[in-house]
Design goal:
4 helices; mainly alpha; 2 domains; about 120 residues
Length: about 120
C-alpha cells in the first residue's frame, strides 16, 4: 500500500469558471500542458507531484498556465497554424536548395580514396 499520497487528486476538480469556461477546455489545457511536461518542459511552479498529469492539473488549477477562451483562443489557434505552415514551407525551400543527391560528395570521396589506393573492390 502507498504511504505517500502526494500524487492523489480528488475528483471532480473544481476550477474558476471565470477563467476557464468549461470542463472540456480545462481537460484540453491539462492534456496540452502534460504533453509539454512529458516532452521536457520545465514545470512552471514547484510541485511534489511525480506524474506529469498531476503537475499539469496543479498548474492549470493555480492559474500558472494561461488558458485562452473565446476570440483570444481562436486567434491563437490561427497563429499557431500559420507558424506551422511557415515552418513547413521553410523545410520545403531547404529541400529545393539542398538536393539529396550527393554526387559531388561521392566524386570527392572517390578521388580521395583513389589517392590512398583504397577503392571499393568493384571500382578497382
Amino acid at each position: 500500500m502507498r504511504k505517500d499520497k502526494t500524487d492523489v487528486i480528488s475528483l471532480p476538480v473544481e476550477f474558476d469558471r471565470s477563467k476557464i469556461d468549461s470542463r472540456y477546455r480545462f481537460v484540453v489545457a491539462v492534456i496540452k500542458r502534460a504533453k509539454e511536461l512529458h516532452q521536457g518542459a520545465v514545470p512552471a511552479m514547484p510541485t511534489r507531484a511525480r506524474k506529469v498529469t498531476t503537475a499539469a492539473i496543479e498548474e492549470v488549477l493555480c492559474g500558472v498556465v494561461r488558458v485562452l477562451t473565446g476570440e483570444a483562443a481562436l486567434k491563437a489557434e490561427k497563429e499557431a497554424g500559420k507558424l506551422t505552415y511557415e515552418n513547413m514551407m521553410d523545410e520545403a525551400r531547404q529541400k529545393v536548395s539542398f538536393p539529396d543527391k550527393p554526387t559531388d560528395l561521392r566524386k570527392d570521396l572517390e578521388e580521395f580514396l583513389a589517392g590512398k589506393n583504397v577503392l571499393p573492390p568493384e571500382e578497382q
